[in-house]
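Appendix B, record 7
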Amino acid sequence: MARIPLIAGNWKMFKTIPETVDFCHRLKGEMAALGGKKIEVAVAPPFTAIAAAAQALQGSPVQVASQDVFWAESGAYTGEISVRMLKDAGCSLGLVGHSERRQYFQETDEAVNKKAGALMKEGLIPIVCVGETLGERQGRVTFQVVERQIREGLKGLAVRDPSGLVIAYEPVWAIGTGQTATPQQAQEVHAFIRKLVGEVFSPSLAQAIRILYGGSVKPENTAELMGMEDVDGALVGGASLEVKTFAQIIQRA
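Structure tokens (predicted):
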């Protein structure tokens, strides 16, 4: 089944509003140069720059994603951002469960599940991130860790349209380290995730859901990773901060 590739740039804690606007205007030009290639692109700016990014990207196919979200619609949750606020600012997708949220902010599978459900309720697409640490990879428990994250993270979600959910496999040991899972390692875990999604939902849905790879993605390794049967795109970190580099990744995908 043909799945349209998705390349999503996660800017993390980088870029002011003027820097965001400049980047987005230049990215629009790069996208125009790609012509009508079948590929979807998204950027995830910091919260402060989401509205500016959405405005600057008007008229282009590039979507805006959030880097996180809170599951409550409103309330006394100082410092949190609701799905409706993100939607109002121009988001159409949202990352949940990124390894840095899990590592630094003790985000649990239960929290990931609630955040994904909140996004879906408002019509935004969750990008559910899963992946193992270096210690877990060395301890040969990669599949156990990923299975727990998938089953708990997707529990009870009403996914009927495969375009309404994206999964991102990001081996934590390959994020910001310069190390990248080999295409074969990525494919092995992606195929495992697709099988699990088939058990959680249905095999037909699993065949249509996109699974992205994240972890030191750069122009030099994009084509080889994307050549794998179950790799449907990339969640790009550092390499998404420069327009030319990000555009090269999009081109090679």
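Remarks on this record: The longest helix spans residues 17-34. The beta strands are 6-10, 40-44, 63-66, 93-96, 125-130, 166-169, 210-214, 233-236.
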